[in-house]
Amino acid sequence: MNARMGGEDVMRKVEIELNGVKVRAILYEERAPVTVAALWSALPFEDRVTHAKWSGQMFHTNTKLPINIDTSQWGLGVENPVGFQAPGDIVYLPSAREIAIAYGDARFTWVIGPMYVSALGRIESDMTEFAQKADRLQWDGAGRFVIRRLTEA
Amino acid sequence: MVKPIAIEFDGHTLAGVLFDDKAPDICNRIWQALPLEGQTTNTIWSGDMLRLWVEISEPERQENVAGLHNPGDILFIPRWNGLRFVYGQARMQGPSGAHPVPLVGRLQGDLTSLAEFGRRIEWDGAKPLRVMRR
Predict the structure, then answer these.
(1) CATH code reported for the domain at A3-149
(2) pTM attached to this predicted model
């Protein structure tokens, strides 16, 4: 079910910016309605992101998102849980209140091993340049990240 | 023959040894290549582990293979080259999971400065590190 605006179904879309490169993404309102709504209300969100050290070609936010949701309602502690990610996938870990984005081969992992995370959306525009910026994070250090609304719900 | 080494980074020096009794061929290749200097990044699959991007000649076989690692461990991964330095919780991994690799040496003493170096690289980017004979 998409958000309604002006009588038409309008999918919630966001713009993600990494070190000046922008891509567009859709959010999974139907599959993760609670978490997506909470994220939506927290936008725009800006942070310094760093490259993953356990998860492969992925980067993550470092400041806790201003999202408070009751995760006890979901058996695995996350809404719309996934154990694997594809390039462009946007995932969320409620316990850390962090967003992670895969730009290549990746699997959300921490010291205890792979973890379930909430699949919140995916990048739908060409992400070639975005992936190059993401890959540079391991060489250049933390980068500027912004996620902002593209549509109004 | 003991092969004592040291690493230098960000104004710090740590002593270590190569396990030439357990991994003689690989350690000799490393020893012959010293001093080595290159850029250091964090690994992207393996946790608190630094990768020093330098060229070391390829060994003919694996030696002293270890599946679990401790802070201070020095690792060499055939076909992926360079050296790895463990500074915290880490396990050599890739997209297909964990894979045992040759344990070729160990850094000695207080590793606090190395751990801080690893954390700073995460935020500030790659930094140089030098390995030399001691």
Answers:
(1) 2.40.100.20
(2) 0.93
